[in-house]
Amino acid sequence: MNFDPAAFRQQVGQILDDHARAFGLPDERHAILRRQIMAGDDIHSRRTFPGHVTTSAFILDPTGRRILLIHHRSLERWLQPGGHYEPPDSLMGSALREAIEETGMHDLVIDPWHRETGLPVDIDSHRIPARPERGEPEHWHHDIRYVVRASEHDPLRPDLREVHGAEWRGLQDLETIAPQGLRNIRSLGLVGP
Question: For 129-145, what is the mean pLDDT?
Protein backbone atom coordinates (compact mmCIF):
# COMPACT_ATOMS: atom_id res chain seq x y z
CA MET A 1 0.00 0.00 0.00
CA ASN A 2 1.38 3.42 -0.97
CA PHE A 3 1.61 6.09 1.69
CA ASP A 4 0.95 9.71 0.74
CA PRO A 5 2.53 12.20 3.19
CA ALA A 6 0.43 15.10 1.84
CA ALA A 7 -2.80 13.13 2.33
CA PHE A 8 -1.67 12.20 5.85
CA ARG A 9 -1.03 15.88 6.69
CA GLN A 10 -4.47 16.75 5.34
CA GLN A 11 -6.06 13.96 7.39
CA VAL A 12 -4.35 15.11 10.59
CA GLY A 13 -5.33 18.73 9.88
CA GLN A 14 -8.97 17.70 9.49
CA ILE A 15 -8.81 15.66 12.71
CA LEU A 16 -7.40 18.71 14.54
CA ASP A 17 -10.28 20.87 13.28
CA ASP A 18 -12.98 18.31 14.06
CA HIS A 19 -11.49 17.49 17.47
CA ALA A 20 -11.28 21.18 18.45
CA ARG A 21 -14.92 21.67 17.45
CA ALA A 22 -16.11 18.53 19.27
CA PHE A 23 -14.39 19.43 22.55
CA GLY A 24 -14.58 23.23 22.40
CA LEU A 25 -10.81 23.72 22.22
CA PRO A 26 -9.07 26.72 20.66
CA ASP A 27 -7.21 26.11 17.38
CA GLU A 28 -4.02 27.53 18.90
CA ARG A 29 -3.87 24.57 21.30
CA HIS A 30 -2.12 22.71 18.45
CA ALA A 31 -0.25 25.66 16.92
CA ILE A 32 3.08 23.85 16.45
CA LEU A 33 1.51 20.86 14.71
CA ARG A 34 -0.63 23.15 12.55
CA ARG A 35 2.51 25.11 11.51
CA GLN A 36 4.28 21.87 10.61
CA ILE A 37 1.30 20.78 8.50
CA MET A 38 1.24 24.14 6.69
CA ALA A 39 5.02 23.91 6.10
CA GLY A 40 4.63 20.48 4.50
CA ASP A 41 6.73 18.68 7.13
CA ASP A 42 6.77 14.88 7.06
CA ILE A 43 4.94 14.64 10.37
CA HIS A 44 4.61 10.86 9.90
CA SER A 45 8.39 10.36 10.26
CA ARG A 46 10.11 10.04 13.62
CA ARG A 47 13.13 11.77 12.00
CA THR A 48 11.13 14.99 11.41
CA PHE A 49 11.86 17.84 13.77
CA PRO A 50 10.71 19.95 15.51
CA GLY A 51 8.06 17.24 15.93
CA HIS A 52 6.18 14.24 14.61
CA VAL A 53 3.01 12.23 15.22
CA THR A 54 2.76 9.58 17.91
CA THR A 55 -0.29 7.62 19.04
CA SER A 56 -1.28 6.25 22.41
CA ALA A 57 -4.00 4.30 24.18
CA PHE A 58 -5.96 5.01 27.32
CA ILE A 59 -6.60 1.34 28.18
CA LEU A 60 -9.63 0.97 30.46
CA ASP A 61 -10.60 -2.14 32.40
CA PRO A 62 -14.04 -3.68 31.72
CA THR A 63 -15.66 -1.56 34.47
CA GLY A 64 -14.18 1.69 33.13
CA ARG A 65 -12.83 2.48 36.62
CA ARG A 66 -9.15 1.72 36.14
CA ILE A 67 -6.54 2.61 33.55
CA LEU A 68 -3.49 0.61 32.55
CA LEU A 69 -0.26 2.59 32.75
CA ILE A 70 3.25 1.59 31.73
CA HIS A 71 6.52 2.79 33.22
CA HIS A 72 8.30 4.30 30.23
CA ARG A 73 11.94 3.22 29.90
CA SER A 74 13.52 6.38 28.50
CA LEU A 75 11.26 8.98 30.15
CA GLU A 76 11.32 7.19 33.54
CA ARG A 77 7.67 7.92 34.36
CA TRP A 78 4.23 6.33 34.32
CA LEU A 79 2.33 6.97 31.08
CA GLN A 80 -0.31 5.43 28.84
CA PRO A 81 1.08 2.94 26.28
CA GLY A 82 2.03 4.52 22.99
CA GLY A 83 4.74 5.23 20.48
CA HIS A 84 5.67 6.57 17.08
CA TYR A 85 3.16 6.43 14.26
CA GLU A 86 4.27 4.02 11.54
CA PRO A 87 2.86 4.39 8.02
CA PRO A 88 0.66 3.13 6.52
CA ASP A 89 -1.24 2.24 9.74
CA SER A 90 -4.42 4.12 10.54
CA LEU A 91 -4.04 6.35 13.59
CA MET A 92 -6.43 4.09 15.55
CA GLY A 93 -4.55 1.02 14.35
CA SER A 94 -1.25 2.56 15.43
CA ALA A 95 -2.55 3.23 18.96
CA LEU A 96 -3.91 -0.31 19.23
CA ARG A 97 -0.67 -1.84 17.92
CA GLU A 98 1.38 0.09 20.49
CA ALA A 99 -0.98 -0.96 23.30
CA ILE A 100 -0.70 -4.63 22.36
CA GLU A 101 3.10 -4.49 21.94
CA GLU A 102 3.74 -2.81 25.29
CA THR A 103 1.23 -4.70 27.44
CA GLY A 104 1.24 -8.16 25.83
CA MET A 105 -2.58 -8.13 25.96
CA HIS A 106 -4.25 -9.47 22.81
CA ASP A 107 -7.99 -8.92 23.42
CA LEU A 108 -7.77 -5.12 23.32
CA VAL A 109 -10.29 -3.22 21.18
CA ILE A 110 -10.76 0.42 20.22
CA ASP A 111 -13.77 1.97 21.99
CA PRO A 112 -16.81 2.12 19.66
CA TRP A 113 -17.06 5.91 20.16
CA HIS A 114 -13.97 6.34 17.96
CA ARG A 115 -15.39 4.26 15.12
CA GLU A 116 -18.66 6.22 15.26
CA THR A 117 -17.02 9.66 15.26
CA GLY A 118 -13.66 9.06 13.57
CA LEU A 119 -12.11 11.26 16.27
CA PRO A 120 -9.43 10.69 18.90
CA VAL A 121 -10.40 11.42 22.49
CA ASP A 122 -7.37 13.68 23.01
CA ILE A 123 -4.51 15.29 21.09
CA ASP A 124 -1.53 16.57 23.03
CA SER A 125 1.77 18.10 21.92
CA HIS A 126 4.53 17.73 24.50
CA ARG A 127 8.30 18.16 24.59
CA ILE A 128 10.61 15.15 24.52
CA PRO A 129 14.16 15.54 25.87
CA ALA A 130 17.13 15.36 23.49
CA ARG A 131 18.73 11.94 23.00
CA PRO A 132 22.17 12.66 21.52
CA GLU A 133 23.03 8.94 21.38
CA ARG A 134 20.20 8.58 18.84
CA GLY A 135 20.89 11.84 17.05
CA GLU A 136 17.60 13.31 18.33
CA PRO A 137 17.38 16.94 19.45
CA GLU A 138 14.74 18.04 21.93
CA HIS A 139 11.50 17.81 19.99
CA TRP A 140 7.70 17.55 20.10
CA HIS A 141 5.51 14.48 20.11
CA HIS A 142 2.09 15.29 18.69
CA ASP A 143 0.25 12.46 20.45
CA ILE A 144 -3.12 11.36 19.08
CA ARG A 145 -4.94 9.37 21.77
CA TYR A 146 -7.67 6.73 21.76
CA VAL A 147 -9.66 4.86 24.39
CA VAL A 148 -9.00 1.12 24.25
CA ARG A 149 -11.05 -1.48 26.12
CA ALA A 150 -9.52 -4.51 27.84
CA SER A 151 -11.38 -7.76 28.40
CA GLU A 152 -11.69 -9.33 31.82
CA HIS A 153 -9.66 -12.44 30.97
CA ASP A 154 -6.77 -10.92 29.00
CA PRO A 155 -3.63 -11.31 31.13
CA LEU A 156 -1.17 -8.45 31.41
CA ARG A 157 2.25 -9.48 30.05
CA PRO A 158 4.30 -6.28 29.63
CA ASP A 159 7.22 -6.38 27.20
CA LEU A 160 10.09 -5.57 29.56
CA ARG A 161 12.28 -4.69 26.59
CA GLU A 162 9.86 -1.82 25.93
CA VAL A 163 8.74 -0.83 29.45
CA HIS A 164 9.90 -1.19 33.05
CA GLY A 165 6.49 -2.44 34.11
CA ALA A 166 2.74 -2.03 33.80
CA GLU A 167 0.01 -1.61 36.41
CA TRP A 168 -3.71 -1.05 36.66
CA ARG A 169 -4.22 2.29 38.39
CA GLY A 170 -7.15 4.44 39.46
CA LEU A 171 -8.42 6.89 36.84
CA GLN A 172 -7.31 9.79 39.03
CA ASP A 173 -3.70 8.92 38.12
CA LEU A 174 -4.44 10.15 34.60
CA GLU A 175 -5.01 13.65 36.01
CA THR A 176 -1.27 14.35 36.22
CA ILE A 177 -0.47 12.62 32.90
CA ALA A 178 -3.26 13.72 30.56
CA PRO A 179 -5.71 16.06 32.31
CA GLN A 180 -7.50 17.14 29.11
CA GLY A 181 -7.78 13.51 28.02
CA LEU A 182 -9.34 12.55 31.34
CA ARG A 183 -11.81 15.46 31.14
CA ASN A 184 -12.79 14.41 27.61
CA ILE A 185 -13.21 10.75 28.58
CA ARG A 186 -15.40 11.73 31.53
CA SER A 187 -17.47 14.22 29.51
CA LEU A 188 -18.26 11.47 26.98
CA GLY A 189 -19.31 9.04 29.72
CA LEU A 190 -16.68 6.48 28.66
CA VAL A 191 -15.63 5.70 32.25
CA GLY A 192 -17.41 4.08 35.18
CA PRO A 193 -18.83 6.02 38.12
Answer: 94
